């Protein structure tokens, strides 16, 4: 089992910044992928960014150039630096840990942290 705890959400004005953190504990394997998703009210949960244990990253088009995902493998923690925030970034942000074994993905989720962008 893997336990994920997100932090860092809150209320910010448009154009502002927030930094989310997600700490993983439990049965952590050295080779894994961690990601951030967001889910706005009435919408599906969408991918924001991913980062492999080797440091390769991928971003949704809507956040490219504004958000940066990073990780500290020694602390089993992933971060999401969010700059130039827009009202449409308002959502609950979820951290995901994925371990792939053969053709099977094992996914674990955090409880989510609310990000609200509003003046």
Helices and strands, with pairings:
Elements: E1 2-7, E2 10-12, E3 18-26, E4 33-39, E5 46-52, E6 57-59, E7 67-72, E8 77-82, E9 91-101, E10 104-109, E11 113-117
Parallel strand pairs: 2-11
Antiparallel strand pairs: 1-3, 3-8, 4-5, 4-9, 5-6, 7-8, 9-10, 9-11
Please provide a written account of the structure.
A hairpin with a 6-residue loop joins strand 4 (33-39) and strand 5 (46-52). The N and C termini lie far apart (40 Å). Helix content is 0%, strand content 58%. It is built from no helices and eleven strands. The protein has strands spanning 2-7, 10-12, 18-26, 33-39, 46-52, 57-59, 67-72, 77-82, 91-101, 104-109, 113-117. The radius of gyration is 14 Å and the shape is globular. The mean pLDDT is 95. The protein has 119 residues and is mainly β. Strands 2, 4, 5, 6, 9, 10 and 11 form a seven-stranded mixed beta sheet that branches. A four-stranded antiparallel beta sheet has the order 1-3-8-7, with no helix packed on it.
């Amino acid at each position: 089992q893997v336990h994920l705890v997100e932090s860092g959400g809150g209320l910010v004005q448009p154009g502002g910044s927030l930094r989310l953190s997600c700490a993983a504990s439990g049965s952590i394997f050295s080779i894994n992928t961690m990601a951030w998703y967001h889910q706005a009210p009435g919408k599906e949960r969408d991918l924001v960014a991913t980062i492999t244990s080797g440091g390769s990253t991928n971003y949704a088009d809507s956040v490219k150039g504004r958000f940066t995902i990073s990780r500290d493998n020694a602390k089993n923690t992933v971060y999401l630096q969010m700059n130039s925030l827009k009202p449409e970034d308002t959502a609950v942000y979820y951290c995901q840990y994925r371990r792939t074994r053969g053709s099977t993905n094992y996914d674990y989720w955090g409880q989510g942290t609310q990000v609200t962008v509003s003046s």
